[in-house]
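Reviewer comment 2.1 asked that we show a complete input and output for one of the modelled complexes. We chose the adenosine-5'-triphosphate case, as it is the one discussed in the main text.
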Amino acid sequence: MSVPGSSGTADRGSPDRRKAVALALRFYGGELLRRRGNAVPALLLPALGNTCLAYLAPLAVAALVDRLAGGGRADLGSLLPYALGFGGLMLLGELLWRIGVHHINRTEARGIEHLAVVGMDALLAKDAAFFHDNFAGSLTKRVLSFAARFEEFVDTLVFQVFANLVPLVFACVVLWRYDPLLVAVLLGLIALTGFAIAPLVRRRQALVDQREAAIARVSGHVSDTLANMDAVRAFAAERREAAEHRARVAEQRVLALRSWDYGNLRIDTVVAPMSVLTATLGLLVAIGLTGGAPGVEAIVVTFAYFTSATRVMFEFNQIYRRLEGSLTEAAQFTELLLDPPVVLDPPSPEPPSGEDSGVRFERVAFSYPSGRPLFDGLDLDIPAGHRIGLVGRSGGGKSTLTKLLLRLMDVDGGRILVGGRDIARLRQADLRGLIAYVPQEPAMFHRSLRANIAFARPGASEADVLRAARAAHVTEFAEALPDGFDTLVGERGVKLSGGQRQRVALARAILRDAPILLLDEATSALDSENEALVQDALWQLMRDRTAVVVAHRLSTVVRMDRLVVLDGGRVVEQGSHDELLRTGGAYARLWHHQSGGFLAEDDTGPAGDRTAVP
Ligand SMILES: Nc1ncnc2c1ncn2[C@@H]1O[C@H](COP(=O)(O)OP(=O)(O)OP(=O)(O)O)[C@@H](O)[C@H]1O
Ligand SMILES: [Mg+2]
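Response of the prediction step:
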């Protein structure tokens, strides 16, 4: 079954996945290095705190017991120092912990902040095509987890790896003084346990993977259903979706239990007897020390140290799982970074031409990665100040042409010139600064109406925003909204009608005030009355500007200087409306096929409401 939201995820163990995990480790390691002022105390202080609490304080108790057993004085005055020593060491341990946690908090909070910034920057640098292949929901989860999982990574290093290793080293030094055999037994059995459970931990990982995949299937279905709630309602599909959800969470339960039980029944059944064996052997060695006349202190210390140290055995599994878990999840993001963006600014960009806003397509070749060639040697010349209408069948490549001009994708062959300069030699921001673009599906941010318009030109004055809104006839409906221009438009603008969204997009283009206008079906959702009004504003705007206007509704483009008919990625005809009608070719056919101003459905794909030809 395909897992929504996990498309493009490399298989575990594949070279790409390994590279992604290595890259995640580099990011996380780099973060620790960058904040070493916090990271070093974060890693060491809790470990030293544990050493005080679990290994140094027992030494005081052992010395006390030894003294009592040796028949020393047992009055308060002579025993008090031991108790105070014990208390002092415990207090020191707690103090080290508190300072350590202070540094952990800063390491993690700042690391998460920085990683979130780095992650978003990397996404913002990605090509347009990247976002066609990856879902927004999945990317959101991946980039945020990449930052958030740093917390678990550091926690595991601090609380489980360092907090166990440093005290273990200390324990070995102390035990060595009694007898090196104690150290050999302790380290030997810990290592043996590690080897014994390594294959089990790996096998368990396969179960964990299955469980994680089941969780992804649940979340994929939940987000898919919630995102399409209107469709679910409209098709009365609530019960169907609920049943699907029940099936998916049941599968998740089965797989979760399987992986948890494996941990309990297979791994811990090996670890538990090994830990008992280690502790018991340690005690036996201690008893056997000094030829059967062991020091009381050595026995007490051995007992305390072995019980503390063997606990690490139970944590092997968890350490592996948590480090692997956090790195695997971070790798889901870093694998997106393995392929660097291809649409890049040139190393030494040319300045954009100040005056000339002419556009030329020269032998342009382009195909989508998944498809057959769309353009193969396309030529199109639009002198500065010319207004062309781009028409033709659905799927003919009109929107693709607009995206190539914006350099959202790079051409495979030929070149595109703006003002006589190859757009690949301009800085992307400079190129796009020359173009006011209204896409076929206008993008709306869940921000206020005003912010949505002003998006086109940050820093535009309130008067400019309102002027653009008036020209695009946004003002009419804005005033009826509950908070006027301060109304939030909802996710993707769901609180606006299709035509209202288009008018907001047009207001943006007007506010953008760029020398080239690129309108892709910018007025298709407007009724003819509103379109006529908006057209007036657009005509004003197009004066002295170069304009490319894509439209199915021929009435929208009939007055353009030139009409270009695109079909199958080729310019099949161009000329003015009258010329093309006289030629009696493809355009004339489209025009005559229009029933009352619209192209018949088999010519255009989408059909709209029917409007009279002006
Ligand atoms: N992101 C994409 N990945 C792969 N193929 C694509 C992508 N976008 C468009 N195509 C394909 O490229 C061809 C041209 O699409 P394009 O959107 O440019 O057509 P169009 O002329 O704008 O059509 P319409 O009039 O319906 O808007 C179509 O066959 C389409 O399926
Ligand atoms: Mg299109």
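Strands lie at 359-366, 375-382, 387-391, 413-418, 421-422, 435-438, 516-520, 546-550, 562-567, 570-575. We note this here for comparison with the apo prediction described in Section 3.2.
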